[in-house]
Amino acid sequence: MLVPVTEMVKKARAEHYAVAHININNLEWTKAALQTAEELKAPIILGVSEGAGKYMGGFKVVADMVKALEESMGITVPVALHLDHGTYEGAKACIEAGFSSVMFDGSHYPIEENVEKLKELVATCHAKGMSIEAEVGSIGGEEDGVVGQGECADPEECKRIADLGVDILAAGIGNIHGKYPENWAGLSFETLDAIQAKVGDMPLVLHGGSGIPEDMIKKAISLGVAKINVNTECQLAFAAATREYIEAGKDQQGKGYDPRKLLAPGTEAIKATIKEKMELFGCIGKAE
Ligand SMILES: [Zn+2]
Asked: Which of 59, 95, 136, 247 has the least CB density, counted as fewest CB within 10 Å?
């Protein structure tokens, strides 16, 4: 049974660790994430972007796949299936498809329109026992590699959005998506502190968790971050392990071309990356 992120992140916020949000891209990715979470007795949030949802055949396919795997793999740890950076239409589609959580990224709308749409989605999600994440300001990056510093959210605006009843809040604190550029200025703990002072116990989300130095991650957790999104690092680990397999000519030995063999090293690399992240986030054993 899929659960909303609400209880997971509240507990994490109170006990000073963060739940790993792992973006999934296919069956192997999903199995790797679920297996690792179960082995380490950690709660897990499976994130699905709209693009990844489309790639996998649609949100209904994703929701049914995750539910079926959870059952057939005998998963006992809490699992949330969460739409990552959803549009208004995408969020509605995921609510219908059986997700347990959505993020509404209305950062490109004028604030009033963002608030109106968010209010409606909060009511719909809560009526269905789902959780909802909102974003304040916008999180920079998008793999362009040219930004030195991601955007920082306005703490007043964070308070306004938090008061709409969202379960978890993503606010830019200098973090960015994709690979971090050489000249990145680091996270703004001043901003994080100011946001925390305004929103109180509201669990916060750190997007673009791939490539942020460990000490910064730990400090962010101590200041209220309870969910950290990891995507790029799993992709890089998968690609590197697959490249190594092919460059070693293993796909040309015996039945090395069999996708079950070809994708195995990459899948193991995803598991190792998730384990590393869970150790850093402090969420291991927290599902017990
Ligand atoms: Zn994000």
From this structure: 247
Ligand 1 centre and the CA of 180: distance in Å? 14
- Range(s) of the domain holding residue 56: 6-232+270-281
Domain assignment of residue 286, yes or no: no
Query: Looking at the domain assignment, is residue 261 inside a domain?
Result: no
> What confidence tens digit (pLDDT) does each residue in 247-265 have?
999 999 999 999 999 999 9
Residue 84 a catalytic site member: yes
Domains held by the chain: number: 1
Neighbouring residues of 277: CB distance < 8 A, sequence distance ≥ 6? 20, 22, 209, 228, 230, 233
Model pLDDT, residue 31: 98
What is the 168 CA–ligand 1 centroid distance (Å)?
Answer: 13
Of 234, 246, 231, 244, nearest to 272 by C-alpha is 234
**Digit-coded pLDDT (tens) for 9-33:** 999 999 999 999 999 999 999 999 9
Q: What is the enclosing helix (H) or strand (E) of 93? A: helix 88-97
We report the CATH number of the domain holding residue 203 as: 3.20.20.70
